[in-house]
Design brief:
This protein is an alpha+beta fold and 93 residues long. 27% of the residues lie in helices and 12% in strands. A 3-stranded antiparallel sheet has the order 1-2-3. The chain is built from 2 helices and 3 strands, in the order αβββα.
Length: 93
């Protein structure tokens, strides 16, 4: 199932887009669209949390954990130093 996210502060705009998309793309022989208004969305490995009004929190822990688990050269990283930032040392001086 492919999920798409759409946001707008005016809910009518979202409703109009959903109605347009259903009319244009829904094929009853393939599948019925099931739009939902989620407070938390998963988009390209990033969790978008709209729970707190006026605030969007982005979480990528699950995506990063999966990438690390699937990384084929993890044994080579066991003896490397941990860093607090991905920036090179000379950029922070």
């Amino acid at each position: 199932m492919i999920r798409r996210s759409l946001t707008n502060k005016d809910k009518k705009v979202v409703d109009q887009f959903i109605e347009w998309a259903i009319k244009k793309y829904e094929d009853s022989e393939v599948a019925k669209h099931k739009p939902s208004r989620a407070v938390v969305c998963d988009h390209l490995g990033t969790i978008l949390d709209h729970y707190e009004k006026g605030v969007v929190k982005l979480h990528m822990k699950a995506c990063i954990r999966m990438m690390l688990e699937e990384f084929k050269h993890s044994a080579e990283l066991k003896d490397t130093n941990k860093v607090s930032t991905p920036a090179a040392d000379h950029l922070l001086k």
